[in-house]
Amino acid sequence: MTTTLTWQDEVHRLAREQDAVVLAHNYMSPEIQDVADHVGDSLALSRLAASTSARTIVFCGVHFMAETAKILSPDKTVLVPTAEAGCSLADTIDADQLRAWKTEHPGAAVVAYVNTSAAVKAEADVCCTSSNAVDVVRSIPADVPILFLPDQFLGAHVRRETGRSNIEVWLGECHVHAGISPGDVRARLAEHPDADLLVHPECGCASSAIWLAGEGVLPAERTKILSTGGMVGAARATTAATTLVATEIGMLHQLSRVNDRTRFLPVNPRAVCQFMKMTTPELLLRALREGRDEVTVPEAIAARARRSVERMIALGQPGGGE
Ligand code: 13P
Ligand code: SF4
To answer: 227-255 pLDDT, tens per residue?
Structure first.
């Protein structure tokens, strides 16, 4: 009797043969999440990459995430199934633009979200993720002005939470999250008035969700602004029958995996990141078979970027993965 290997078996066989670990971001398509060794948010996966004993890391996510893994694990081979998987938010600022912005604000501390290129991280003082941005900003003395980049909605969230007025925010946005509007939230809540609401801070609706919660229009105790890793934790803990989710729809698979009692519904079902969906089973197999696309970061840039990422890591244990 002959047995046919599935593509999933082949991924596992090749990964063993190559001494590779397969990491997948929470926005990957369900089949990629299910075949991966670990699923999580961008920072949790980078930390797994840094601590793994595997020689090769296959990062199923977008390019800046694999770059962060390479920055933290310079001696390992880091692969992305396609180097074309970029990020519209990371593309809103490059290192030259950041240098010019710093020149306009001498003495300011630069806080860069991990959704940035290695060259931008190298120009920053400290990095942050959606789960620790408020704590990172709080770690900076109150009288030091801050340049926060590149996400305006996360920046507004940080300003509001810290109450600081000395934060300049870069006007970047992620086209997927900016497209999840306050109108979408209101419409879904009208349909599901008893639902919990999980909102990623990159969303165009994040500010208004907080404001509406403060006004009593949304249930404050059931409205949470969270990173993708934080959403997984909230999904494990909730007893709600229905939870509305304002982020990229790949997230729903992971939430349903950790909690099959709750119905997780997208606030906007069209919130799809085409960069995340570029990773297909075929390209994952190609990565393992052909060792491509390899991610490299010049050491001069990596050394400075590593300092910013490690400063953030030293501040706490944000992010979530399994
Ligand atoms: P997380 O760090 O919360 O996983 O978010 C990454 C991202 O790209 C959000 O769009
Ligand atoms: Fe970038 Fe937005 Fe896609 Fe996240 S969802 S990877 S921020 S384009």
So the answer is: 899 999 999 999 999 999 999 999 999 99
Full 3-state SS string of the chain: CCCCCCHHHHHHHHHHHHCEEEEEECCCCHHHHHHCCEEECHHHHHHHHHHCCCCEEEEECCHHHHHHHHHHCCCCEEECCCCCCCCCCHHHCCHHHHHHHHHHCCCCEEEEECCCCHHHHHHCCEEECCCCHHHHHHCCCCCCCEEEECEHHHHHHHHHHHCCCCEEECCECCHHHHCCCHHHHHHHHHHCCCCEEEECCCCCCHHHHHHHHHCCCCCHHHEEECCHHHHHHHHHHCCCCEEEEECCCCHHHHHHHHCCCCEEEECCCCCCCCCHHHCCHHHHHHHHHHCCCECCCCHHHHHHHHHHHHHHHHHCCCCCEC
**Within 6 Å (CB) of ligand 1, which residues are found?**
26, 41-43, 115, 129-130, 174, 202, 227-228
pLDDT digits (tens, 9 = 90+) for 261-317: 999 999 999 999 999 999 999 999 999 999 999 999 999 999 999 999 999 988 865
Q: How many angstroms is it from 200 CA to the middle of ligand 1?
A: 8
- 176-266 carries CATH number 3.40.50.10800: yes
Q: 90-173+303-314 architecture in CATH?
A: 3-Layer(aba) Sandwich (3.40)
CA of 64, closest atom in ligand 2: 6
